[in-house]
TrEMBL record:
Protein source organism: Balearica regulorum gibbericeps
The keyword Calcium appears for this protein: no
InterPro entries documented for this protein: EPSTI1
Protein name per Swiss-Prot or TrEMBL: Epithelial-stromal interaction protein 1
PANTHER family: EPITHELIAL-STROMAL INTERACTION PROTEIN 1
Coiled coil: 67-97
Length: 159
């Protein structure tokens, strides 16, 4: 009976040992798969990769590496957004400057046209004054007529 009892204990111990070995191999297989999935990163240094490293520690390190990777991606996206915003602001400034230049050119062109129109009016008035003076011989000193067109030679035709 004692031998039978010892034999049962041995069998029980062997089953437990086989179960523990099986668990050990499964755990190592899982950890190896986790190691393969770890991102290659300088900031993620695992100090202890030996069998004494627990699954919890390795899992925590893996999750930390994933968080660091995610944070790096977020920072990169923020930098990209800032760069795009700066570029958009620069383009808006350029467009505003172009609109201002176009507006100034329009005003300048309008003023030049107005100046030319005024000169033409003066010439026409002078011409009409001369015509009127020819038809009325006694009124040579009509207002607005100087007898010559010298006032147009001071650059009034040029803007």
């Amino acid at each position: 009976a004692e031998r039978l009892e010892v034999k049962k204990r041995k069998e029980e111990m062997q089953r437990k040992e086989m179960f523990l070995e099986d668990q050990y191999y499964k755990t190592n297989e899982l950890l190896n798969r986790l190691d393969l999935g770890l991102p290659k990163s300088d900031s993620c240094q695992i100090a202890n990769r030996g069998p004494e490293s627990t699954a919890w520690t390795r899992s925590r390190i893996y999750k930390q590496a994933l968080r660091e990777d995610e944070n790096r991606r977020l920072e990169e996206m923020k930098r990209e957004q800032r760069r795009k915003a700066e570029l958009m602001e620069f383009k808006q400034k350029q467009e505003e400057e172009a609109r201002m230049r176009a507006h100034q050119n329009e005003q300048r062109s309008y003023l030049q046209s107005l100046c030319i129109f005024c000169c033409i009016l003066r010439v026409n008035n002078a011409f009409l004054d001369r015509l009127q003076n020819k038809t009325q011989p006694n009124s040579i000193n009509q207002p607005g007529y100087s007898g010559s067109l010298d006032y147009l030679s001071n650059g009034a035709w040029v803007s």
